[in-house]
Each structure stands twice: as structure tokens, then as C-alpha cells.
Design a protein that fits this description.
This protein has a domain at 126-230. The protein has 23 helices and no strands. It has helices spanning 2-25, 29-44, 55-68, 74-87, 92-105, 109-120, 127-130, 132-159, 168-188, 196-208, 212-224, 232-244, 249-262, 269-277, 282-295, 305-321, 325-333, 339-343, 346-355, 357-371, 376-387, 391-402, 404-411. The protein is extended, with a radius of gyration of 30 Å. It starts with a helix and ends with a helix.
Length: 412
């Protein structure tokens, strides 16, 4: 019967899709391609009156297979993407973008630019307005490629030395790329979103031509506009710009403070801690200790010699002056249950000593103050350092022994 035929056809399609999914998960690209071919052929034989819209599914699956299939070629991929562009008007610009990404990954920059230009000129009634965001992305990536061409021309001129701008033709071509890139990049970064690469390129253009006020405004907007999602990179770009401009320490600290609140494990926390330690204000030095302790809470920092050096130096200063021991106590109270196993085990003492003696020295100093002279980490490292007749380790042992009372005060 007709109903039975429809039911069997539906089951067949679902089974075929299940086989395709299984093949994709197991990275069996040839098998997946065979099942996809069967799936497409079955759709062509579907005489039911039900509305079927499988074009996006075929596009997504087919793209994945062609990307990984050992026997696929760029020619086949281009042919497939052109077919996909004609299957669904609603997805036309998305398919164009994915095609461009693939061309760029294969180093075909001119072909990618040509595809972007064709996509930008695409018009289809009301769909043009509906796909406004996709169209802006198309324009933005074209601006990105114009930026790459501008950068290439700029490097040619700079390589010519003092007479770098003597080649008028190259200079004019460079300015032409600048104008096209700036227009499109400026438009995309007005839309709330994460536009890191576009912002970096636009700021680079502005800085090269001396428009520092516009660059500052763009970066401030990107970092502080509440309509944009929280983005650590926005604050990194602003900090790096302020640093290039020779801004005050106060401005730099302000930028990094927000970055610390978002990503306390960011690599710039070393710079942040260094600036705070040099401050004459007690509040900022206290924050510096908090920053470096927080960074070392993360596994990625466990063997960061610079970070341990920053912490060791500040802890040593506090111990010698015998002022603000409560700062250390407050930070340590929040960590004393898990830092000993995380940072100061005997196993880590042996490994750190073998791999990086400078790291083991800094960690041993901190361990000796926080856990006392009987700490496993401190005892192993100081013993090995004294055996090796290294003067700094003998001095380390004396320092910790002399200030063992600090450990008693910190531990309560």
C-alpha cells in the first residue's frame, strides 16, 4: 500500500543516515561516501508528497567527507560546493563562506577573493535582507584579504629602506587596498560579537597611518561595550596598544585588572604582578600577591619558573620586613588543603630538581615559608642543593631555618 511504502521508505532513510553517522564517527570516509551516495539516490526516487529539505544535511556531511577522504581533490570539492550553492537559496551565503575557508586553507587566495566578490554581488529578493549578517561576513572576509594584500605591498615598500615610498605605483596600490579593507573591517566590528582578527587588522591599518585616536576608540569599544560578549582578547589588544603608545602604569594596570578578573591564568599575569609589586601603594602590592597566587592555582603554571620567582620574591620581601604577614596567611588559608599535594610533593621535588634547578629553588623557598622547614619539597631540594655544593641553596636553607617562626604564624 501507499502508506506502507512511505513507512518503509522513511525507515530506509533513517537507517542510511544512521550508517553514515557511524562511518563518520569511526572516520571511515570511503564507507561514509558510499552510504551518502545511496542516500542521495534514494531521495531522487522519493515520490511521496511530503516536503523534504535534506540539502543542508547533504552539504554538511558531504563537506566533511570530502575534507577527509584520501582520494578527494580540490576540483571535486569545488564542484560539490557549486552544486550545494544551487540547492538552497537560504544557505547560499553560508555555503559560499565555507567554500572560501576551504580555498584559503589550501592556499588559493585569489580564488577565495573571487568567490567572495561573486557572493557579495548576489541578490535574491527578500533573502538578501534576511541574510544581512552573512553578507556582512562575506564583506568582512573580503576586507581581510584586502588587508593581506595591503600588508604585502607595505612590506615591499619597507624593504626598500629610506626610499621605500619612491615607487609611486606600489604606494598607490597599497593605499587602494587600505581603503577597501578599512571600509569592510570597520563595518563588521560595529556588530556585537567576537571579531578578534578583524579588530587586530583594522587597528594595524589605523596605527600605520597614525590614526591613534581612532584605534584607541575601536579597542575601547571592543573591550568595554556591554553589548559585546566578554572577551579576554579584547583587553589583551587594548593593553598591548596602550603599551605601544607608552601610556601610564595606571592605564596599563587598569586594563590588566579586568583581564585578571576574566582569566586569572592568562600569561600576562606575570607582567601584571611585576607592575603591582613595584607600586608604592600597599593596596596594589596586596593585589599583586593575590594575582600570582591565583595564577599558580592552574596546572598550566605548575612549572612556570617566572611565576614562582615572582611569588618567591614577594614572599621573601614580606618575611624580611615582617610586615603584611596576614596577606600571605589569607592566601594560604584558601589553599593549604590542596596546594601541598598539587605543588609540593616529594615526587615533584625530585622531578623539578632533575629538570629545572632554578624552578626547584624558587618553589623550595615558597614551600619552606608556607609549610615550614620540615616540608618534603623543601627538605629534598635543599639537601640536593647542599650536596651539589651550590651556594644559593645553602643560603636558602639558612633563610628558611632562620624564619621558621613565620610558618608558625601563617599556619596559626
Amino acid at each position: 500500500s501507499s502508506n506502507e511504502h512511505k513507512l518503509n521508505f522513511k525507515k530506509s532513510k533513517e537507517a542510511c543516515l544512521s550508517y553514515i553517522q557511524d562511518a563518520l564517527l569511526q572516520k571511515q570516509w570511503k564507507r561514509a561516501a558510499e552510504f551518502l551516495t545511496c542516500y542521495v539516490e534514494s531521495l531522487e526516487k522519493d515520490y511521496s508528497r511530503e516536503h523534504i529539505g535534506p540539502s543542508e544535511m547533504i552539504w554538511r556531511i558531504g563537506t566533511e567527507i570530502l575534507w577527509h577522504h584520501s582520494q578527494s581533490s580540490m576540483k571535486e570539492f569545488n564542484c560539490f560546493m557549486e552544486q550545494m550553492k544551487t540547492l538552497g537559496v537560504k544557505r547560499y551565503l553560508k555555503v559560499c563562506l565555507e567554500h572560501v575557508f576551504h580555498l584559503l586553507c589550501n592556499g588559493q587566495i585569489d580564488e577565495a577573493y573571487q568567490n567572495l566578490s561573486l557572493a557579495e554581488s548576489w541578490r535574491f529578493g527578500e533573502q538578501t535582507a534576511i541574510q544581512d549578517k552573512e553578507m556582512k561576513l562575506i564583506q568582512a572576509y573580503r576586507g581581510l584579504l584586502d588587508y593581506c594584500s595591503w600588508s604585502k605591498q607595505k612590506n615591499i615598500l619597507l624593504e626598500q629602506g629610506e626610499d621605500g615610498f619612491s615607487d609611486l605605483a606600489v604606494e598607490q596600490e597599497m593605499h587602494g587596498y587600505f581603503r577597501k579593507a578599512a571600509v569592510n573591517l570597520k563595518e563588521i566590528i560595529k556588530i556585537p560579537g567576537v571579531w578578534d582578527i578583524f579588530v587586530k587588522c583594522y587597528v594595524d591599518l589605523l596605527e600605520f597611518y597614525g590614526d591613534h585616536n581612532e584605534a584607541r576608540q575601536v579597542l575601547n569599544e571592543y573591550a568595554y561595550n556591554s553589548k559585546f560578549p566578554a572577551n579576554p582578547n579584547a583587553h589583551v589588544y587594548l593593553y598591548e596598544f596602550l603599551k605601544r603608545q607608552g601610556e601610564s602604569k595606571k592605564s596599563l594596570i587598569s586594563a590588566l585588572k579586568i583581564l585578571h578578573d576574566i582569566v586569572p591564568s592568562h600569561e600576562l599575569m606575570i607582567d601584571f604582578n611585576t607592575m603591582l609589586q613595584k607600586s608604592k601603594k600597599r593596596k596594589k602590592r596586596r593585589l599583586g600577591l593575590e594575582v600570582i597566587f591565583a595564577a599558580l592555582d592552574y596546572a598550566g603554571w605548575k612549572e612556570n619558573a617566572k611565576a614562582w620567582s615572582c611569588l618567591a620574591r614577594q614572599v621573601k620581601q614580606i618575611v624580611i620586613s615582617e610586615k603584611h604577614l596576614e596577606w600571605i596567611k589569607q592566601e594560604w588559608n584558601a589553599r593549604k588543603d590542596w596546594w601541598p599535594a598539587f605543588h609540593f610533593s616529594r615526587y615533584l621535588a625530585k622531578r623539578n630538581w632533575q629538570e629545572n634547578k632554578s624552578l626547584s629553588y624558587e618553589k623550595a623557598l615558597v614551600a619552606g615559608i608556607l609549610l615550614g622547614k620540615d616540608c618534603k619539597y623543601f627538605r629534598h631540594v635543599s639537601r640536593q642543593g647542599c650536596k651539589a655544593q651550590l651556594k644559593r641553596f645553602r643560603m636558602l636553607k639558612k633563610f628558611v631555618n632562620r624564619h621558621n617562626s613565620v610558618y608558625l604564624k601563617i599556619s596559626g
